[in-house]
TrEMBL record:
Protein name listed in UniProt: Probable serine hydroxymethyltransferase
Pathway recorded for this protein: One-carbon metabolism; tetrahydrofolate interconversion
Biological-process GO terms, alphabetical: glycine biosynthetic process from serine; methylation; tetrahydrofolate interconversion
Entry's EC annotation: 2.1.2.1
HAMAP family, alphabetized: SHMT
N6-(pyridoxal phosphate)lysine: modified positions: 232
Localization in the cell: Cytoplasm
Keyword vocabulary terms for this entry: Cytoplasm, Methyltransferase, One-carbon metabolism, Pyridoxal phosphate, Transferase
GO CC annotation: cytosol
SUPFAM superfamilies assigned: PLP-dependent transferases (SSF53383)
Subunit structure: Homodimer.
Length: 418
């Protein structure tokens, strides 16, 4: 291969890889994405992530690097930091985490001692595995005490949180989860944290876009530190952020990220974060998030009308958790049936689920990606009916084929990346 070829050949030079990527493009174009941890980024974000920043290695913070040649790398990361702090109204941000899990792990490492007690939501109640699941490093490195939700309304039982906090005296209380569809009372949790001299960390990964646009209670000033992913409701590059206001925490948080849990910065991803954070500062991002909430409620209402039970009775954010028990189907079969018709969802346990994660009682769904491509309430009402029809007859392959055609036709009315 000549040098000219090396710097000019594109994806067509690798047919196997090209087929897989082209197939994924078509899947996204022709299907409907309802997975809560996914969204659709802009062409701007795609181009920023695919830039020559891929070639550059830096370590440390902007303007304090261990590597030379960082003038433009520093400008990119500083821009991402400035946009993150402006968007969320805070003083400090670390935009380097490769993921939300790294944002959490790095913050834990920076602020806590190994073996300290963390009080966080049980994954079985909707919490996230990075908050101390036994299979993760955070679950192994710290003493984890778990709170859940009430059996009566499937919402956080703040009295239980308070009782557990006074019993176990955690060094940190974690709020936020992976499958909790309701707004959280951050003030109550901060009061509990103050009473036991604990940090309050809010992981707002699934509602960060709503926070940024004033459509959800803001974690600040109640939280000591806030973490989030930059995709999901922020509609951006895959990665994480850490946000805080107290300068005294800066060295510890930054050190927890690097060199604590990860190495050099993925600058091309930071560029994608900067691009999406810039988009989030535009007025149309508020319009988008308002539509997400309206569409999620429409989807939830349609599912409930079709016989599914909505965990906690509905949703305050872009995601919802549906109990399939009334239809007599489990989550693994439900997800497979829907995917065969072009509807991507994920199986999920519900609170107090009698069934295992591999074949749980629920599905987790989101309006984020569908709203990003332009779907409105009418389209989500149609999607809800697709789901109900399919789950009532999961073995009907003719029905799957017909709905797959209707899904493709609906998607074609709202094209992406053409």
């Amino acid at each position: 291969m000549s040098l000219q070829d090396y710097f000019s050949r594109g994806l067509s030079a690798d047919p196997e890889l090209e087929r897989a990527i082209t197939g994924e493009m078509r899947r996204q174009q022709d299907g409907i994405e309802l997975i809560a941890s996914e969204n659709l980024v802009s062409r701007l974000v795609l181009e920023a992530q695919g830039s020559v920043l891929t070639n550059k290695t830096v370590e440390g913070l902007p303007y304090k690097r261990y590597y030379g040649g960082a003038e433009f790398a520093d400008a990119v990361e500083a821009l991402a930091v400035e946009r993150a702090t402006r968007l969320f109204g805070c003083r400090f941000a670390n935009v380097q985490p490769h993921s939300g899990s790294n944002a959490n792990a790095g913050t834990f490492l920076g602020l806590l001692k190994l073996g300290d007690t963390i009080l966080s939501m049980d994954t079985a109640a909707g919490g996230h595995i990075s908050h101390g699941h036994p299979a993760t490093l955070t679950g192994r490195d710290y003493r984890i005490v778990r709170y859940g939700v009430s059996r009566q309304n499937e919402r956080i039982d703040y009295d239980e949180v308070r009782a557990l906090a006074f019993e176990h005296r955690p060094r940190m209380i974690v709020a936020g989860g992976s499958a909790y569809p309701r707004a959280i009372d951050f003030k109550v949790l901060r009061d509990i944290a103050d009473a036991v001299d604990a940090y309050l960390l809010v992981d707002m990964a699934h509602f960060a876009g709503l926070v940024a646009t004033g459509l959800h209670p803001h974690p600040f000033p109640h939280a000591h530190v806030v973490t989030t992913t930059t995709y999901k409701s922020l509609r951006g590059a895959r990665g994480g952020l850490v946000l805080w206001n107290d300068e005294a925490l800066s060295r510890r948080i930054n050190g927890g990220i690097f060199p604590g849990v990860q190495g050099s910065v993925m600058l091309h991803i930071v560029a994608g974060k900067a691009a999406s954070l810039g988009e989030a500062l535009r007025p149309d991002f508020t319009t988008y998030n308002a539509a997400v909430v309206a569409n999620a409620r429409q989807l939830a209402e349609g599912l409930a009308a079709g016989g599914l039970r909505l965990v906690s009775g509905g949703t305050d954010i872009g995601l919802m958790l549906a109990d399939l028990s009334p239809l007599g189907i489990r989550g693994d079969l439900a997800a497979h049936t829907l995917e065969a018709a072009g509807l991507a969802v994920n199986k999920n346990q519900i609170p107090f689920d009698p069934h295992p994660p591999e074949a749980p009682s629920g599905l987790r769904l989101s309006a984020n990606a569908g709203t990003a491509r332009g779907f409105g309430e009418a389209e989500f009402a149609t999607i809800a009916q697709f789901i109900v029809d399919l789950l009532r007859a999961p073995e009907d392959t003719q029905l799957q084929s017909r709905i797959q055609s209707e899904v493709a036709a609906l998607s074609a009315r709202f094209p992406i990346y053409r």
